[in-house]
């Protein structure tokens, strides 16, 4: 899944995002400093799992990013050291008193907010679903729906890795705000 062509596709999407933001008055894109291999090793030790290769390539070459407009974050990524800190409190989640829901929330790595910052909706990595290439499935967490993490690799059609995810998110963002 994570191939050279995926890397090129991600790079092209990031360049499209940068170019698009330049055309929008009051909109800015900011990238954090990339992390090094030592930091990745520290993150993997902290989370007790190997991070997906496509995500590692992104944060070691580009860092994380956020796009702001009028002081409000429209799209962005959580800092790599905060992937569990960003997680919602299981007691606030639908069926959060169910141990399976609470366990899923506590195991997932929440790397990107969805929609609006005021609502706890996220994109996260599912540590229970890893492809043969080492990629973790990207799944959605919605504050108003029960959350679960399926076991094992999903069907190839349903499996969405970080590279596929971030390109789609960037392209959807551009399409949405091109009309604004």
Layout: helices, strands, pairs:
Elements lengths: L3 H19 L4 E5 L5 H11 L5 H9 L3 E5 L2 E5 L22 H9 L1 E5 L8 E9 L5 E6 L20 H17 L2
Antiparallel strand pairs: 1-2, 2-3, 4-5, 5-6
Helix pairs in contact: 1-5
Widest sheet: strand ordering: 1-2-3
What distance lies between the first and last C-alpha atoms, to the nearest angstrom? 34 Å
Largest sheet: 3 strands, antiparallel
| Number of H/I helices | 5
Give an overview in words.
The chain has helices at 4-22, 37-47, 53-61, 99-107, 162-178, and strands at residues 27-31, 65-69, 72-76, 109-113, 122-130, 136-141. It is an alpha+beta fold. Helix 1 runs parallel beside helix 5.
Please outline what is shown here.
The chain is built from five helices and six strands.
Which key terms come to mind for this protein?
180 residues, alpha+beta, 3-stranded antiparallel β-sheet, 5 helices, globular
